[in-house]
Records
---
Amino acid sequence: MSFLNPLLLVAALGVALPILAHLLNRNKVKRTDWAAMQFLDRSVRIRSRELRLKDFILLCLRCLAILILVAALAKPFVEDAGDLPQGIGESRSGVVIALDASYSMAHNEGNTTRFERAIDKIGVITENIHPGDPVSLVLLGSEPRIIANNVAFDPEAFEELLQSLEISPESLNLDNVPKTLNRLAQSMEAPQKQVFFLTDMQASDWDKQPAWLGAAFESLSESASTFIIPVLGGSDNLAIVGLELVSGVLREGTVARYRATVRNCGPNPAQNVMVKGLADDITVDNKTIPVIAPGSSESVSLFINFRNAGPVRISAELEQDAVLEDNTRRTVAIIRDRVSVLSVEGESGSFGNFIVAALRARGSDSGQENFSVQSVPWIDLPSQDLANFDVVILQNVPDITPEQALAFESYVRAGNGLIWFAGDNIDAAAWNKRSALDGISLLPAVIEQTVSTSDALGVGRPLDPTVPDHPVCRPLRSLPEDLLSETRLRKLLQVKPAATSSTILSLAGTAAPVLLEHSVGRGQVFMFTTSADSAWNNMAVTPVFPMVLQQMVTYLTAREFETPRQVGDSLSLSYVEQPDASEAVFDAPSGDTIAVPVLEHRNQYVALLDNARESGFYLARVSLQSPGVPVAVNVDTAESNVESQSADEVQQRFEATEIVVAQSDADLLDAVGQSQAGRSFWFPMLVTVLGLLVIESLIAGRKPNKSASKLKSTEPIAANMENT
C-alpha cells in the first residue's frame, strides 16, 4: 500500500490528544479505609472496573478514528490489486493521451487515415476510464498543443472533443514529446498514472532519434506507465518538394519558367504523374512525368504568363494521392510594370556600358522594357532619389559619404537590392569604414587587398559556381562546361567574408570568393570581388555576364513575401516609417483574421505573426482596408516520407525499457487493464471513521446497568467516606 499524500501522515501524532485528555481526567483520590463502610467496597470495585473498561474502549475508538481519518486524507492506494475481490476499493487512474497530429498521419489507406484509426484506438482506452478520473489530451506536431489538461473525465464531452480534432500540416518534433508527457503526468493526483502515445512511428523521425531521446522516453516510464500504440500503414506517397523560378523576368507581359520537382517517397514506381501550374488559382500549364522511380525525384518546367502587374499566387499541384498536404507547392511573384535599375559609375568613360548592355542583352526594345536602366557618375549620386529604383549597382565607386552609407542601408533594409563591383578606384579602407553601420556591415565582406590570379602566361583562373542551386547560378546550368572554363578572372579583391554572408561564385580551384551575398533587413546585397568591365576579367564580354546579372536583378526584385515560408515559421510586415495603423492584419488560408501589433525595432516598425500554423496563402495587410500582399506557406516535405517502422522494429526499439508496445487491439485492452490496476481506499476509510464516531457516541451515552443503579445512591457516600 502507498499514499498519494504521505506528508499528511504526520497528522497521526494527533492521536496523542485523546490519550492526554484521558490521563488528565483520571481521578486522583486519597484512599482511607473505614470499617463501617466496608460492606460497600465490593460494589464500588465492580463499578470502577466497569467505568475503566468503558473509558478504555472510548479511548481506543477515538484514537482509531483519528488514525484512520489521517490515513484517508493521505489517500492510500494499492498498486497491484489484481488479487483483491471486485468491489473492494476504488479504481483511480490518471490518463495522458498523446496523439501524433503531424500530416503523415493523414496517409489514407482503405478509405481511412492513420489519424482516424488512432481516434478509434483512443475510444478503446476511454471506454475503461472511470467518470471523474483525471485525463489530459495533447496533439503533437512541431509544438505540442494541449487540448485538455487534467480534467475530470466525461465520456460524452470527451467523445465530442475527439471528433473535433484535426491533423496539423506540421512535422512531428520528437524532441518535445517526453518532456511534455512527463509534465502532464506529474501534474495529476491519482494512484496510477498512465501515458498512451499514439503515433505512426514514421521511420524518418525515429531513425534519427538521438541517444538522449531514448533515455528521456525511458525516464518517462519511471514516473508513469507508458504505452506506445503504433498506427502503421502503407508508404506510397508523392510530394512536390520544390517550386522555383528558373528564368524570366518578373515583369508585366513576360513569360517566366518555373521548375517543379516531384519526389516519389514510396517503394513503388509512380507512372504518368500529372503536374499542374496555377496562377491565382487558374491552371496555366500542365506537364506529365512518365515515371518516377522509388525514392527518386523528377522535375518539369511550368511556364507562367504574367499579364498584369501586381502580386501573383503561383502553385504547382499533383492529383490526389494518399497524402494531400504535400501535393501543392506555393510561391508568390511580385510583377512590376518595369524593373528600374540605377547604375552608378565610379570611373568616367564607357565602362558603364557593360552594365547597360548586359541588362538589355535580349534585344533592343524588349530588353529596354524588361529593365529600365539609368547610368550616372558617382559624383551625381546625392541628387538621386533611391526610392525610385528597384536595384542600385555600384561599379568601381571609390568612396561614399557617411550620409550616403546611411541612405543605402535604409534603402536595402526596406526590401531593395544593391550590387557592388570592385575596380581599380576602390578605396578599401574607406569602404570598410563606411559599410560598418550599427554593428551590421552593409557589404558582405571586409576588403583586405587586391591580388592577381593570373598564371605565368597571364591567363586568369576560371569561374566556379559554389552554390549551383542558388537562383543566380541556375541559368549557368544550361551553358556548356567549356564556356564556364573559358571565363577567366585576372584580378580579385582578397576579402574576409562576414559571418552572415554566403559565397555564391568562387575562383576555380580555390576558396577565393567572386560573388558574395548577405541580407540587410528585408533586402539583399551582392558583392563582386572583380570588376564589371574587361579590366580584371573577360567575364563581361562572355554570355555569362548578362545571364548572371539579369538573373541577379530578377532575384533582387523579389520582395520578402516572394520567399515561401514553412509551417511554423513567423511572418512579418516591415515599415520604414511609422504606419498610421497600430495593428497589421494577417488573413489565414482558413479565412481567420489575425491582428498583430506594430512594434518599433531598430529604427523600423515591424508586425510579427509568430507561428504560421496553416499551409496555403496568407494575406498580409497594413490594415483591414488595404489590399495586402500574399505570403506562401508550405509544409515541411521531410514529413512526406510516410514509411513507418515495422512492427518488429518498433518492438525492438522499446524491448529494453519499461515501455509497453501495444501492437494490436488485444495488446491495447491489456494495457488498459493495467491502467485500472490500482485501487484507492480513502472513501471507505472515511465511512469507517464515521462509523467509529457513531459507536463512540453510543457507548459514551450508554446508561448504567440495574446493579449499578442500585448502588447509585450510595456512591456519593462511599466517595465521601473515602475522602474523610
---
Amino acid sequence: MENANKTIDDIIKRMKLNKRKTNVALIQKAYNFAAEHHKGQKRMSGEDYIMHPLNVAYILADLQMDDATICAALLHDVVEDTEATNEDIVKNFGEEIAEMVAGVTKLSKIQYVTIEEEQVENYRKMFLAMGKDIRVILIKLADRLHNMRTLSSLKRERQIANAKETMELYAPLANRLGIYSLKWELEDLAFRYLYPEEYRELVLSIEKKREERIEFINKIMEEIRVALKKQKIVAEVTGRAKHLYSIYRKMQRDNIALDQVYDLFALRIIVNSVKDCYAAIGVVHELYTPMPGRFKDYIAVPKPNMYQSIHNTLIGPKGTPFEVQVRTWDMHRVAEYGIAAHWAYKEANRFKKSNVVVTEDKLAWLRETLEWQKDMQDPDEFLKTLKTELFEDEVYVFTPKGEIKTLPRDATPIDFAYTIHAEVGHRMIGCKINSKMMPIVTPLKSGDIVEIITSDTAKGPSRDWLKIVKSSSAKTKIQQWFKKTEREDNIEKGKDILDKEIKKIGMSHSDLFKPEWIQVVLNRYNYNTVDDMYASIGFGGISPNKIITRLLEEYKKEHEEDTIEEKIQELVTERLRKQKIPKSGVVVKGIDNCLVKFSKCCNPVPGDDIIGYITKGRGVSIHRKDCTNLKDLLSEEERIIEVEWYNENEKAEYNVDIQVLANDRTGLLSDVVKEITAQKINIMGVNTRTSKDRIATIDATLEVQGIEQLNQVIKQIRKVDSVYEVTRKKWY
C-alpha cells in the first residue's frame, strides 16, 4: 500500500517509464486546471484537495494507462465539486476526456426518494459509461482506492459505510476486470475497517512466525531455481505472502485456525512461453508431491476476467503445504492489470506476439450486465443482482462440442441453455449432464458436459424458472419473454396489484393518479407509457410500493403546504401557552425556599450529576457537572453550592437539547418526530439542516421528566432508518 502523496512530476516520470509517447503539456494543463479550480478546498484530513486527484492519476499511471485517462483522473472531481462545467472540460480538453469525467461524476441534480435509490442510479450511470469506455471504471476504482488509503480521517460511521461498499461492489468489480493489484489492496483496506479487531489479531499472529516462514519459502525458491536452471528454463521465481483478507476468508469459510492455513505463502514462476509453463510445473512436481485435487489449469481454461496461470498446492519440507503459480510474462501483466493491460495492448500495440488473446468476448459479462439493468427499475433488486453478478464464485461447464461456458455457482441447465441462445432456453424441454438424462434444475459442477434438448412445440419458459435460475442474463431473457407474450395480462395484473396496495394505505386510485404526478413516476423509472408501468408491475420488474412511494411524495408536496417544521412550531406554541411551570425539583443544601433556575447552556434533567452556582440577584443557577461553562465558574469557589434532585417532584418536566445525524432522505424528520411523540414527549423546538454530502442534522429541544426517559427516546430515535448517531447536545 502506498500512502505517500504524489506530485505532478511523479506522474509524468511514471508515464515516461511506460515507454510510450507522453503528452506532457496536456497532462500539465489538466493539472493546472484542476489545481486552480480546487484551490482553497481541503480534504477531511486537512490536506489540500488537489492531492486526491494527483494520487488517483498516479495509480492509473502505474497501471500504464494513456494520457487521456490520466487527464480525466486529474479532472475527475472538478465538475462535481467546483464551479467548472462539462462544457469547460470539452472546450479545454476535448470530448474524449470530458465523457470520461462525466462518467465518474455523481448524479447531483436529481432528487431521489431514498439514499439507496440515488446510490443505485449512480451505479447504473457508471455502468452505462463503462459500456461506452472501460477507462471510466478504471478511474472510479483508482478513486476508490485512494479514498480507502486515506479513510482514517473520516468518522467511524463513514469508514464503515465506505468499507462495506468497497467490499461488496468495488473489490468484486476489480476482480471481474482482472485487476488483482487493485482487488487485493481494496479488500485488505476494507477488511481493516470492517473488522478492526480480527485484522489486528491476524497481523500480529502472522508477524510472530514471519522469519520462520521467510526461511521456509526462500529454501524452496532456491531449490526450484536450481532445478529450472538444470532444465535450461529461463524463469523468475518469487515468493509473496497471501493477502490478509484472503487468509481471513479462508479461515471463516473452512472454520479453521491460522495454524491450519498452510498456504500462507505462494510461489510465482514467470517464464517466456506457454510451453515453458508446463515444463516448469513438471519440474516442480519432480521436487515436491502435489496435493490431490488442487491442480488448476487456467491457461487451458482462462477465467472470464482474462486471468491465466497454472495453480497447484504441493507438500514442502517437513510436510508443510505451499502454493505455486506458473505463468508467462504476458499472462503476468494481465493478472496484475486485467482490463487495463488490455487497454495498454490496444493503445500501444506493443505485444503483437503475445500468447494472451484479449478480445471483446472477454467483456461479455459487462454487455449482459448492461442488458439486464435496462429492464430493472426496482433499485433494491438492481443492487442485489449487481452484487451477485460481481462475486467471483463460478463454475465452468462444456457444450458437447467442447465450448466452455462460465456460469454462477449453483447454476442449472436452464442457465446453461440461455447462455447458448434465448430461443434455446425458451424451447428447452430436458437436458443431459455427462450423457445422462437429468432434471433441468440440477446444480451444475465444473467440468460437466451439458446437452440441451429442445422442442419446436415447447410452450416457453415457466414462471417458476425465475426462482430457479442464478444468472442475471437468463432471468432477463425469461422476463423479456413474459413481457412480450403476456403484455396485456401483465397490464391488467399490474393495475390490479397497484390498486390493492393503494387501498391498503387508506387511499384511492383517484387520490394519487394526477397526470403530472404520474409523469414524474414515468420519467423517474424510464417508462414511456402508464401501460409500460403497469406491465412492469405485473411481471415483477418493479415493486408497486416503489410507485406508491413516489406518488405519495408528489401528493404531500401539494397537500402539505406547511412544512413539518411549521407544524411542530405550532404545536410548541400551543404547548407553551397551556404549560404550567412546575416546581424546580431541586433541593439547595442548607437553604429553604431558594429561587432556582436551570441553566440553558446544559439543560440538566433528573439523573444528571448537578451543581449549583449562586448568581447575583437571580438565585441559584443549576448546571450539569460536565457543563463546559462550569469550568469558568469554578474559579469562584465561594459561589459554588451543593444541590440535589428532589425525588417527590419526579413528574416535573425539563428541557433538554439533542442532536440527530443521519443520511438525508425524504420523510426523515417526520419519522424522527413520530418516535419522539410515541414516547409522549413534547417537542419544544426543532431545527434541521443538510450538508453538501447529504448528511442531515436535526437539533431538537425536548421536554422530559428525567435521564431515563431521555435515554429511552434516544434509543428509539437510533432505530429510525438512515439515522446513525443521536447525542445529547453539548454547549460551548
---
Amino acid sequence: MKLDEFAGQLEKNEKSEYEALVAEAQAEGADPKSIRGKLARLASSVLNRIGEQPNPGPIIAEFSKFYLSMPQKQEALPLTELSVKLPYPLGYKLKSFLDDKKLFDSGENVPQFAYDLCAVMGLLVRLAATIGIQGYVSILGGKDTGLNREVVETLRAPADGSWLTLARRLAERLSKEKNPGIAGSLQQALSTKITMEGSKKRSTSLAQALERLVGFRNRLVHGERVAKNDLEEAVDLLLASVRGFGFLAEFDLLVRRDEGGFRLNGLLPEKMEKLNPALPADQPCLVSQKDPKNFLSLSPILHFQEGHDDQEVTFDELFFLNAGSGERLNYIAYRYARQMDGRSLGSYDAFQDFMKQVPSPPIPKNPRIDYTELSEFHSRLFVGREELFEEVDNFVRGRPTPYGVLKALAGMGKTAVMAKLYGRYASKEEEKIQSGGRWAFHFCMHADGRDNPVVAMRSLIAQICDMFGKDRKPWLSNDLDELKDQKFPSIIGSAAGELKEGERLVLAIDALDEGIGQDQDSIPSILPAFVPDGVIFLTSYRVDDKKENTRVEERLEQIPDERRSVFSHSDPLKGLTKENVEEFLKKASATENIFPDTLEAVWNASTKDSEGAADPFYLRFVAEGLDSGQISANRPETVPTSLDDAFDEMWMNLPADREFLLHRLLCTLAVMFDYADDELFAELFSRDLPEETETLRPDDIAQLRSQAGKLLVYNGERYNLFHDRFRTFLVGANS
C-alpha cells in the first residue's frame, strides 16, 4: 500500500497520531529510528483493521523518503556569497537588499527598504512556482485538469499569494513521483523547518515564512502603517527564506545560443563561449552543477533577451512572466522595472504552445451534467426518424457489436436524435427498465468544457455510479491518465458485472467531432478498445459528402472496424420527408391548418441543397421566424427562399454601429480556431483607429456583441460562432 492510500484510510484518532509523526519528523533534531518504530506500530494496526497484509515496510520507506531524507543541519553560505550563486535576478536583488540592510541597521533612512524586501520575496515565490509549473508539465504532461486550471488562472492574473499557493500544490504533487527532479528539492525546501536569524530565535517552515511575508507585502501596498518591529520581523523571515532556497545555488541558470550562450547566476548575465548542445536553444534552463544532464527548462515563463542597440532592450536581460493568457502576454524585467509585451519579445508563440500543454476546461462542481434543457429544446419540434429509432432499439437488444455509430451531414439533426433518446431513456426510470437498458449520455460541445475528455468521463462515471447506487468519490479524478487508464474502464467493468440477463448499459456520446480540441487527447481517443459484454457505446459525429470525417476516424484507430456498426438509416443521416415538414409546421405554428402554398414554399427552400429531403437546420430558422412573427403561416412570400437567404436577413438586420463593428467581429470569429473575448477584440480593433480617436474598451465590444443573439455560443466569458454552417456562409467552405 502506498503512503497516500494509507493516509486516506486513517480514522480521526489515527490521523492525529500520523500528523504528530510528520511534525516530529520535520522538527530539528528528529530521531529517524524512533519515528520509524512509532510509524510501524501505527501502520500495522491500521492494516489489520482494514484487512490488509500487515506489511508496513512500503509505507515506512515512502514516509522516510518524504519526511526523513532531508539533512537536519546544513552549513549555510554567507548571504553575500549566496547572492552571487543564486539565479539571476534573485542574486542581483538579494545583493541590493543586503547593501540596503547595512544602511538600515546603522540607523540610516532607506525609503524603499520595505519594498526592496518585498521584491526579493516576490522573486522567491515566482521562482518556486515556475519550477513547480515546468516540473509538472515536463513530468506529468499536464494531465490533471484541476491543477491545469490553477496554473492557467495564476498565469492569467498572478499575485505573490497565488504564486506561492500554486508552488506548494505542485511541489507536493510532484514529490509523490518516483523522479520528481528539481521539484523534489523544492518540496523538501518548502516543508523543511528554518530558523529565523533575528533576536527572536524561532523555527517555522519555509512555506509558512513566505506566507507571512506575502501578508506583510499586502499590508504594505494597501497603505497600512508598518511598525518597525513588523519590518524587522519581515527581514528575519526573508533572510531565513533565502537560506531555505539555498538549494538553487547548486544549479546554473543557462541560456544556449548556438554553441555558446549565457550564464544567469548572481549579479549580471555572463556570456559563455560553450554550453551543452543538448540544452534547448533560447530557453532559460536550470542545470544541475553536479549532473549537467539534469536540467529543467523555465521557458516561456522566463524569457531571455540578448541586448541589441536597435531594440528597446539595450542590455542582456531576463524577463519574468507578469500576466499571460491566450489573448495577452506581458513580461517584467526586474533590473530596470520595465514591462514588455510578449509579442515584442518574440515569446508569444512559445507561450501559446505551452498553454496547449495545460488544457483547463471549466470543471463543473457537480460532475454529472444535466441535459434536460437541451433535450426539451430539441424535442419541442422534433418530427420523423421513426425508422432510425427502431434500428437503434434493435441494435441495443441484439448488440451485434460494442459500438453503434450514427453519421450525419452538417445540420441534419444528429444532436436532435440523441437528445430525443436522452428524453426517452435518461429521465424516466420506468422507460429505462422497459427498454432493457440503462443509459448514460454526454453531448460534446465547445461550451463549459464539454469538449474535454476529463469532463466527459467524469459525467459518465457519475451517471453510472448513480444508476447502480455506487459512491462516486472513489471513481472520480481530475487526472486524465488516471481516468482513461483506470477509473473509466473499471467503473464500466464493475457496472457490467451487475447487469441482469439481457440488460444493457448504453453510453451515448453525441458529436465526437466536437470532442476534438487542439490537445493531443480527445473524447474519441478515450473510448476503450475492450468493451465488456452487455455494454454498448452509441456514438455520433458529423461527416462530409463522402461519409467521412478523418479527424474523428484517426482518433478511433484503437477500435477495429468490425467492432463498429453504422446505422443504415444514418449513413449518413439525411433530411426529412414532406410529411415530416408538414408535421413540423403544425407544431411550430400551433395550428392544424397549414396553408398549402406555405408548405410548398418551405419544402422547396428546405430541399434546395439536399436531394429531395428537407434540411432540419433550415427549419430551425423557419420556426424562429414563426415565433417572432417575421414568417406568417398563411403568407408563403414571408418564407426565406434558402438557408443563405435566412442568414442574409439576419446579417442585414445586425446593427451597423462603429463602422459595422459587429459584422467585423463575426467575420473575424469565422477565421479563428478558438474562442475569443471582449478584451481581445477591443485590443484588435483599436489598432486600426486614428491616433486622435478614443480606443475601444471591452464594454464597447460587449454592448454591441450582445446584439448578436443566437449567432454566438459561449464558453464561460468567451464566445464563438454558433455553427459551422454560418461560418461557411461568412467566409466560404475552405476557410
---
Amino acid sequence: MAALDDLISQIPDESLRERIRAEMKRANRQKKFGLAFEEHLPEATPLYDIPVKRGSVVAKKDGHITDIYYVERIEDGQATCYHKASKERVVLPVDALVCVAQFGEPIYPYLQPLDTVCNAPDSDLWHTLIEADNYHALQLLEYLYAGKVDCIYIDPPYNTGARDWKYNNDYVDGADTYRHSKWLSMMEKRLKLAKRLLNPADSVLIVTIDEKEYLHLGCLLEEMFSDAKIQMVSCCINPGGVARASEFCRTDEYIYFVKIGSASPTPLRLGNEWMGSVKNTSKTKAHWDSLMRTGTNNMRSDRPNLFYPVFVSEDGKRFIGAGEPIPIDADRNQVAVPEGARAIWPIHLDGSEGCWQIGRETLLDLQERHFLKLGGFTDRGMAISYMKSGQQEKVLKGEYQILGYKEDNSYLLDDSDYAPAFIPGTQWLIPLHDASRHGSGILRKIFDDKVFAFPKSLYAEHDTIRFFVANKPNALIVDFFAGSGTTLHAVNLLNAEDGGHRRCIMVTNNEVSVDEAKSLTARGYQPGDEEWNKLGIARYVTWPRTVCSIEGHDVNGKPLKGDYVTSGEEPMHMADGFKANAAFFKLGFLDKNAVALGRQFKELLPVLWLKAGAHGPCPALEETAEVPAILVLPVNHFAVLTDESQYEAFAAQVNGEDSITTVYIVTDSEPGYREMISGLHAEDTYQLYRDYLDNFRINHGGR
C-alpha cells in the first residue's frame, strides 16, 4: 500500500488524487486480511412456545432442526405435512413436532419469569439470567442496552472436536471438516450484535479461548474491531496440565481483550505472584528516583539548564541550597561554594559532565516538601534522589506511613504494609486461577457432584473483569455464554469487596448433556418436555449456582463451607452469601397472529423493567387483571401510559415521583408523543406502538 500511496501522490490533479485515495480507503476496509470462511446453513430456532397449527413451519423434535416441514392440516392430534425439499407428504404426531423460525423470518420474543432470589430486599440491584439461544437474546439486549454495556465477558465453546457445541442443533465433532468455518460463522453473528451493545466511548470485550481456535478468533476480532486496541494474555488454568494424546499437555488458555474507545486496564493492588519470577522492588517499596539523568540527552551540553550545583553540608547530612545553572563554557570549579558546604554536580562514572533530571526551582520545591533525599558521598560527589509525582501522591494519600523527617528534611517512611498498584504482564501464573481447585472445587461445594465440565476459576474471572470495572462501581456486565454462571458469581464477589453496585446479565441455553439426552430419549421424553428442561444447563446448573452462592448454601440447603480469598483483612465466609438479588427468565416467542400490545402487556413488563435499568423486583400483573391506563412504579423507576386520554393525571403522578427516570408512552402518533414527553421530567422516554409487532420484532433481515 505504501508504493501505491507514493504513486497516487504524483497525480497532478488534486481532485482525482483525493477520489482515488477515498476509493483505496474504502477497498482497504473491505479486505478480509486472510480470514475467509463459509456461512454454511443459516441457523434455525425451535419455538417450543408456539403451538403447532395449520400453516406452521415445523421440524421433528428428535430430528434435524433444518429438516423443514409445512403443516397442511391437523386432525385428532395428527398433522399432515409436506417436506420442504422432497415435497413428500407424511402424517406425524403433533406432539412430535416443534415450530421453527428460519433465518430471516421475524419472531416475537417475550420474557417469561421462572424464579427469583432475593437476599437484599433493601437493595434495588437485580441481576438477570436469561435462558435462551444467545443469538436471539442478543437481539433483544440490543433493543434494551445498545451502546450502554461496560464489559462483555464470554467463554465460548473452544471447538475442540469433543462435541462441545452445536450448530443447528447438531453437535460439531472433530470429524467435521467444516468445523472451523461453522465456529467462525457462529461467532461472527454474535459478535456483530455484541459490538452494538458495547459503549463506544469506553468498554471492553473479553473472550477466552484455547489453542484450537485462538488464531481464527484473533483474525476475526481484528477484522470486526479494527478501531479497537486488542491484546492477548496467556493464563495458566491448570498447572498440572491436561493430557492430550501425542501432544504437549495444555496448562494455559488465552484471553483476548478488545479495548473500545478509551478503555484500558486499571492499575490494581496485586500480590507478588503477579510480578513474575523477577520481583520489582520499585513496585513494592517507596521508590526514590536518582536525581542524575541517564539514558538519552544526559550530557551537560544536551541540557545546560540542568547543570547546576547542589550544596550540602560538609558531613553530607543537611541540604544547604542550590546554585544557578552556569553557562555552557563556564568552569564548574570556579563556582563559589557557601561556607561549610560542598558542591555536588551531576558527574558520570567516567568523569564527564552530565545533567540533573529536574530544574533548580523544582528541586527546591521538592526539598521544601520533603521529597528530596541525600545519600552517601561517592567518588563523583553524592547520590541524591527525589520522588516523582506518582510516589508523592502515595505519600500524601497515606499509602506509605510517615514516621517523621530525616536530618536532610526528607520524609522517613514505613512502606512495610504497602500493597502496590500496577498493571501486570501478559503471562499470568496465578495459583488462584487454577480451574480445578477454584472452578470445579467451588462447584463441588454447591452441588456435591461434577455437574459441569471445565468451569472457570472464580478468581480468574474476578481478576480479569476487575482490571476494567474496578473504577466503575455501577458497571453493566454481560456474559452470553454463561455456562455454569461464574460471571455473576464473580461480579457479586467484586461488589462485596468494594461496595460496588455492578449489574450482571447472563445468557445461556438449556441444553442437556449427550448422556442425559440419550437417557431421556430412551425414557420417551423429547426436547421441550418438562423432564428434559429441568436437566438443562440453565435450570440444573446456572440458576441453582446463582441462588446458592447468593444465599450461602448448597443445593441441599446446608451452609457452604470455606471462605472466599480476598484482599480484605476480614474473612468473607461463603456461608454468608451476598447482598444481592437475581431474576431468572426464559426467552419465549409469541404467535404473531395472536399478539397485540393490549393483550401482551403482561408479557412485556419484564422487557420494560430491564430497559429501565432492572431496579427493584420485576413487576407483574395478575393474569386476570385489566391493562391499566396508568402504571407508575417508583420502586422500579419507570412508568407506562397506555391511554393517551389519561395523560394529565399521568404527568402529575410521574412528575411527583423523583425516582421515575424512565417513561413509556403507548401511541401511534409521533407528534402526540413529542408533545407529551415535553411535559415530563423523566430522563429517558420511549414510544411504544400499539401493535406489539412493531416494537419487538427480531431475527428479521439486515441485522
